Structure formats: structure tokens, C-alpha cells
Amino acid sequence: MTGQEPMVPDVSVVVPVYNEGATLAELIERTTAVLARAARSYEIVVVDDGSEDATPHLLVELTQKYPHLRTIRLVRNFGQNAALTCGLFAARGAFVVSMDGDLQNPPEEIPTLLRAFGPGVDLVSGLRAQRHEPWWRWLGSRAVHWIARALVGGKLGDYGGQFKAYRRETIEATRPFWAPGKPFFALAVWLGFRVREVPVRHEPRRHGGTRYGFVALARLNLEIITSFTTAPLLGLWLLPPGCLALSVVAAFVGWWRAAEGWWLVSFGAAALALATAGLAALGLYIARLYHLAAGGRTAWVERPHQVTPESFPWRSPFAGTDHQADASTKQFPA
């Protein structure tokens, strides 16, 4: 950033990348062109998640060409969630946009997210109107969405994807509650920050394949479940009544048929009921410790102050007083 520009930019764009050398130059060029027309000051933060292709060398060259480009290189591949969160914490802008590095999120849609901010809006989420992905990838993404919607709350049509926009105050308020493995956007929604969803374009991937295979999607679903609910631990309390019921049934059958084998089954089930009761009690204590450590909706979280359209940093604020109009109908200035 040059000396004539403010130290704190108005808009930051965070892009986690992993082996995206084929699209990196175009991504930075298009994003720079969009931000140069949309914001008074800006920065692009690229987090290299331990890439093994030409990405590190390209970033060095691009940093020399684009003064607004900042780069962070992780020592190894930690995963998209960790890289994205690293970039969010490093970003300095009053408004922060996150997006993927494969150009499936068109940089030209960034103003659509920014214009969706208004009074009472803490987060903006891009709704992929038309998705370009294999059926199994779509099914896995839908599973992520359904689980997140059930556990996190919020009536969103698309929890997946990284095309989001945050206010700086929202990031700082959410930061103390984040831990490795917790999806940052879902965490902010879970804490109660108000989100608005706007439709955005979703382009086909032009180079390489998706980073989210079956195993990665399964791991992501497990991370969401273990990050936002202790239901599996509390579900252990279903085991003792089940074992006890089996013990009673086995005892009745043993008495009815005068068969000693059923009495052994009854005693074994009764012993298992006692063991699972102890396991369930331990699970309850672990769940309480989790809630104490993770915080959540019971914690005091200060809501960011209200802003007026005149204070927005981009050059084409809302016209008039229709702040709640659908952002997809707003035209980005040439």
C-alpha cells in the first residue's frame, strides 16, 4: 500500500488458494479492476495454503505488480477453513469479502455483496443461483447445508461456498469464539449476527478438479456437527433405557420358557445398562465443559453499531431510502 493511502482500507478481499496457479493472475487482475471502480481504498489478501505448484512464485511476481496485494504463506496445507479464517483475521478493511480462488466466484459480483449491506445487516451471503458441479458434489453440499441450517439456524438457501461479506466489527466479535475446525461464517450466524442473502453468479471451474471429494465433504459435515451441538453426547442417554428394556424382556422370556440362557442375557443387559449409564453421565459432563469452553448464544456478544448508507465506503451507495431492495437489481457502475 502506498504512503498516500490510508492504513486501514475500506474493503478487503480474502482469497484462500491451494494450487491455483492456473487462475491466480486472472483472479488478481479482475479483482483489482472491480475494486478500483468500487471502493476508495482496498486490499486483496491471498492466503497460500501450502501450494505445491507455481502459486508461491506467482504471488511474489504479482505482489510486485499490484501494490494492494498482500500475501500470507502457510507452512503446510491446513485446509480451506483454516486458510480462510487466517485471511479474515489478517484483513484490515472495514468490510471484508471472502471468495474462492478458482474463479467460480466471479470478482465482478463483489459489488453485489457490498451493496446488500444496510441497517441491521451484519453479514451478506452469496446464493449460488445456478451451480456447476457433479451430482455427488451437489449432494454433499446439500448435506452440509441441511446440517448447518438445522444446527446453526438462519433461513438461508445456501450455507456452502465462501462468497461472503463481513463487517469488520462482526469478525472481531466472532473471533474469540472461533476454534480450529469451526466454519467461521456458520459460527457468526450461530452467535446471532444478522445475515442477508443475495443471488450471485456461479461459474464452471475451468482448471483442475474440486478440492472437496467424498472424504472431505464427510469430514466437513462431522466438523459442523461437533462444532455446534452436543447432541451425540447427550444421545448416549438412549443406551441405558434400551439395555434395561432388553434386560426386562430377556428376563420375562427366561421365566416364561424356563430357559437359563435368557437369564444370562438379562443379567448381561442389566450390567450393560449400568455401564452405559456411567458413560452417558460422563458425556453430560463433557458436554457441559464444551459449552463452558466454546461459549455460544448464552455469551455476551456486542452487536456492531448501525451504519447509514452515506458512510459506506464504495462509490455508489444506495439511492434514496430503499435500503432493503434486492441487491441483485442494483447495477454496478462502469
Could you characterize what this model shows?
By secondary structure, the protein is α/β, with parallel strands linked by helices. The chain folds into 2 domains: 11-229, Spore Coat Polysaccharide Biosynthesis Protein SpsA, Chain A (Alpha-Beta Complex); 231-294. It is 45% helix and 12% strand. It is built from 11 helices and 7 strands. It has helices at residues 24-38, 55-65, 80-90, 110-115, 135-152, 168-174, 184-191, 214-228, 231-234, 239-257, 260-294, and strands spanning 11-17, 42-48, 69-73, 95-98, 123-128, 164-167, 195-200. The chain has a 7-stranded mixed beta sheet, with helices on both faces. Helix 1 (24-38) links the parallel strand 1 (11-17) and strand 2. Helix 5 runs parallel beside helix 8 and helix 10 (239-257) packs antiparallel against helix 11. The protein is elongated. 35% of the residues are buried.
